[in-house]
Automatic annotation (TrEMBL):
<comment type="similarity">
    <text>Belongs to the ABC transporter superfamily. Drug exporter-1 (DrugE1) (TC 3.A.1.105) family.</text>
</comment>
<dbReference type="InterPro" id="IPR025302">
    <property type="entry name" value="DrrA1/2-like_C"/>
</dbReference>
<keyword id="KW-1003">Cell membrane</keyword>
<keyword id="KW-1278">Translocase</keyword>
<dbReference type="GO" id="GO:0043215">
    <property type="term" value="P:daunorubicin transport"/>
</dbReference>
<dbReference type="InterPro" id="IPR003439">
    <property type="entry name" value="ABC_transporter-like_ATP-bd"/>
</dbReference>
<dbReference type="InterPro" id="IPR050763">
    <property type="entry name" value="ABC_transporter_ATP-binding"/>
</dbReference>
<keyword id="KW-0067">ATP-binding</keyword>
<dbReference type="Pfam" id="PF13732">
    <property type="entry name" value="DrrA1-3_C"/>
</dbReference>
<dbReference type="GO" id="GO:0046677">
    <property type="term" value="P:response to antibiotic"/>
</dbReference>
<keyword id="KW-0046">Antibiotic resistance</keyword>
<keyword id="KW-0472">Membrane</keyword>
<dbReference type="GO" id="GO:0005524">
    <property type="term" value="F:ATP binding"/>
</dbReference>
<dbReference type="GO" id="GO:0005886">
    <property type="term" value="C:plasma membrane"/>
</dbReference>
<keyword id="KW-0813">Transport</keyword>
<protein>
    <submittedName>
        <fullName>ATP-binding cassette domain-containing protein</fullName>
    </submittedName>
</protein>
<dbReference type="Pfam" id="PF00005">
    <property type="entry name" value="ABC_tran"/>
</dbReference>
Length: 317
């Protein structure tokens, strides 16, 4: 459904300035029917990739085929076949959901009657009929995000691109949006989404590409990616400031594969055998006069995959 080869985008602030490389040669191969996630921190190049794939931004170099059409030569055909939900959506608080959906249908050239019929069908499908006549300013964040997705489906696309579909939502609203995304997939639509939430990538995506500094560091199913990270993790909570101080000493130990201060109080240690290394770690911290507040043994997560693939944790970026 999407194939890209060495897709690249530079931005130049002025003629003389060095270009900023937002996307640095991305190769993607996304199959029909997949939910594919681009996982990366702010500034990784996810939005720029989405904007290129939706024809909103021309690539500096590289090639891509989207929904069966060449991204550079058949822009209109690409646009007809895809839906795009931008970060934060674009609905007007003073309008009603029905009005927004009808307007979008008219943008795609539908008659008034066809646009209204389609609007009602989508409202029904997204369980938004009851609120459809109320101004959007009175809606919850989760409802508005679901409407954004419904708007992205107005032209019955084969592929929908969702840029950070749940950023800023509370956990309950996020779960609502996830359910809607799963339903869209069940109906046969391919989905490409961006996220900086590890849990979202893990729960929702069939395959994930880890994006960092404009490049893809790893691609695979969440389980495949986790399987590539051997060993266990030990997460210890320490007094404020201690993780950064003790991490170098922990890294020197023969049983330690890596250690990072995730934040001011949390130290994450990578080991081959967690149950054995716990005793060694506690002994070491004791010898460094560092009291342990809590300790948890963990199996590899996408967080660990991110760290291994990029050299830094996602959360700390
Ligand atoms: N129009 C622009 N002009 C100059 N630099 C830009 C422009 N758009 C993006 N960039 C830069 O390109 C890099 C990638 O930005 P991009 O928005 O694609 O990242 P992202 O992963 O989508 O992050 P976010 O989640 O914040 O949108 C950043 O360093 C950004 O500052």
């Amino acid at each position: 459904m999407i194939t890209t080869h060495a897709l690249r985008r530079e931005f130049r602030r002025s003629r003389r300035a060095e270009p900023v490389v937002a996307v640095d040669g991305i190769d993607l191969n996304i199959a029909r029917g997949e939910v594919f996630g681009l996982l990366g921190p702010n500034g990784a190049g996810k939005s720029t990739t989405m904007r290129m794939l939706t024809t909103l931004l021309p690539p500096t170099s590289g090639t891509a085929t989207v929904a069966g059409h060449d991204l550079r030569r058949e822009r209109a055909a690409v646009r007809r076949r895809i839906g795009f939900v931008a970060q934060g959506g674009g609905t007007d608080s003073a309008e009603t959901a029905r009005a927004e959906l009808v307007m979008q249908g008219r943008v795609f050239g539908m008659s008034k009657a066809a646009a209204l019929a389609q609007a009602n069908e989508l409202l029904d499908r997204f369980s938004l009929t009851e609120a459809a006549g109320r101004r959007l300013g009175t809606w919850s964040g989760g409802m508005r995000r679901r409407l954004d997705i419904a708007i992205g489906l107005v032209n019955r696309p084969e592929l929908v691109l969702l840029d950070e579909p749940t950023t800023g939502l509370d956990p309950a609203s996020r779960a609502e949006v996830w359910a809607e995304i799963r339903a869209v997939r069940e109906a046969g639509t391919t989905i490409l989404l961006t996220t900086h939430y590890l849990e979202e990538a893990d729960e929702l995506c069939d395959r994930v590409a880890i994006v960092d500094k404009g490049r893809i560091a790893r691609t695979g199913t969440p389980d495949e990616l986790k399987a590539q990270v051997a060993g266990d993790g030990i997460v210890v909570t320490l007094p404020p400031g201690a993780p950064g101080l003790v991490a170098p000493a922990v890294r020197e130990q023969a049983w330690c594969r890596g250690a990072d201060a995730v934040d001011d109080r949390t130290l994450r240690v990578y080991v081959d055998d967690g149950s054995r290394a716990v005793t060694d770690l506690l002994r070491l911290l004791d010898s460094l006069s560092t009291p342990v507040v809590t300790l948890t043994l963990t199996r590899p997560s996408l967080d660990d995959v991110f760290l291994t693939a990029t050299g830094h944790p996602l959360a700390a970026v």
